[in-house]
Amino acid sequence: IEYISTFVLIWACGGALMEKDGEDFRKVFSNWWKNEWKTIKFPSKGTVFDYFVDQGESVKFEEWSKKVEEIEFDSTTMQMQNITVPTPETVSTQDFMKNF
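The chain above was modelled as a monomer; its predicted structure follows.
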């Protein structure tokens, strides 16, 4: 439950942060979080926003990129403007809309 609580708190406090005037406030928040809150360890790669809680055999943080699925595009039957290309950010957004 600690991992889920941490995940929810991070997104509740920092999920709306953006980049402004060349400063990435999500990265600033992530660095602050990793330095101040050491009970739940995040991987050193990326920011705290790059991870979700994997509740498999052992609860741990996994990268959103692991949930990105490859899509097949057939230009004869599909129009490009109707395709959402899966990226870690679109996958995380869709996950939030689906689960919360």
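Residues 2-14 form the longest helix (13 residues).
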